Write the structure tokens for this entry.
Amino acid sequence: MQIPDKLPTHVSIIMDGNGRWAKERGKERVYGHFEGVESVRAVIEAGVEWKIPYISFFAFSEENWGRPDAEVQTLMELMGRAMLAELDNFMEHDVRFMVLGNRARLSDALKADIDKVMGATAANKGLTMILFLSYSGRWDILQAAEKMAHDLIEHPGRPVQPEDFSRYLVTAGIPDPDLLIRTSGEQRISNYLLWQTAYTEFVFTDTLWPDFRKEAFREALQTYALRDRRFGKIK
Ligand code: IPE
Ligand code: IPE
Ligand code: MG
């Protein structure tokens, strides 16, 4: 497999189309979510092999809480189970695992699983895998603004720079995504990383998430490698 030489530092993925994938096969939506876990595994495996420093996934949005209880429940259980099942793999491949989002809405059981896997992998030095869970871009910006306002009242000082604000977001210390991939043909941001995608390259693919495996990932990286990033300047 030919890997492009210009790889992104941080690839983020909006994993979409699980429900449609299941429906096409006459199955329940959750079946698509189960199969989607295999795609996450395949992408991480490729990321480790190709030495991509950060790969993040939009796993559950704040808006997704509005789905039927049974689907929400299944998704939450699936995530807890999947992260525990991957722990040995993470340790073997030096993967640091993180969950970012609105923790307050997660169950105690899931928070315990998250703490266990994050704690165990915290010192790993290879790929960082981030799961955005109960996350939305506007929520992140609001919680950051609240924290920053508090600090500014305590320590008024020089004017705030964009880098200062970034430090209050849940992604503090993580480089902004170079590439954002969205599967399933939808071409929107759906309240994902709004601040952090200011100069991100977008790749949209019709492939449904459960079908997105190593070759589809390589193709998206190939598309990214051909992009000309100018950041507002002239080359
Ligand atoms: C993405 O697949 C997974 C989540 C949003 C949790 P969907 O469940 O949105 O699948 P579609 O878009 O309905 O096909
Ligand atoms: C975005 O997918 C959220 C995740 C992938 C977690 P949705 O399926 O929820 O987005 P919309 O509703 O089509 O915009
Ligand atoms: Mg969807």
Q: What stands out?
A: The pocket of IPE (ligand 2) is lined by residues 14-16, 58-61, 64, 186, 188, 190 (CB under 6 Å). DSSP finds seven helices and six strands in the chain. Residues 177 and 197 are 6 Å apart (CA to CA).
